[in-house]
């Protein structure tokens, strides 16, 4: 007689290493000003975030593998939880970077925050309409970063709970099928 396997004995992987650790969110910070890059990097690190900084929208696209160059970093394994970008940069603006990210099937779900020292309402509205998570006025404050981090952690936690709930339902379904088949 065959042994009935309980869900806890089934090989249903609970490996969540592909999910970001809520304690260490990975932020890609994009700014052409070295002073602003260092400042935002410092704020993010103080808020317990892993930070990658690049100096232009073009470099951000290269880092994400969205530049069409096959020699970019291994973006299949890249886990970015948030992209923070300056609006006004030479070559490609933060708005144009936002549009490219939102056009990407791989990265469109990553929240993008636009930062600017200019409080221009049509610009802010256009970024938010295009899918920006938020628009922050420079200088960015620690409270802004903590608020973003907390909302991202809650979102990541919801994703994790949904995945675990789905796996539990799948395991119960398999157990029920096996039980019905009397294997």
| Proportion of beta-strand residues | 5-15%
Calculate Rg over CA atoms: 21 Å
Number of helices: 5
Give the N-terminus to C-terminus distance in angstroms.
8 Å
Largest sheet: 5 strands, parallel
Elements, N to C (H/E): EHEHEHEHEH
> What percent of residues adopt helix (DSSP H or I)?
40-55%
Structural class: alpha/beta
* Uncertain stretches: 1-22
Number of strands: 5
- Strand order within the widest beta sheet: 2-1-3-4-5
Chain-wise SSE layout:
Elements: E1 25-30, H1 34-46, E2 49-54, H2 57-64, E3 82-86, H3 94-103, E4 112-116, H4 121-130, E5 134-137, H5 142-181
Parallel strand pairs: 1-2, 1-3, 3-4, 4-5
Could you describe the 3D structure shown?
- The protein has 5 helices and 5 strands, in the order E-H-E-H-E-H-E-H-E-H.
- It has helices spanning 34-46, 57-64, 94-103, 121-130, 142-181; strands at residues 25-30, 49-54, 82-86, 112-116, 134-137.
- It has a 5-stranded parallel sheet, with helices on both faces.
- Residues 1-22 have low confidence and may be disordered.
Condensed summary:
With 183 residues, the chain is of the alpha/beta class.
Provide the descriptors you would attach to this structure in a database record.
5 helices; 183 residues; 14% strand; 5-stranded parallel beta sheet
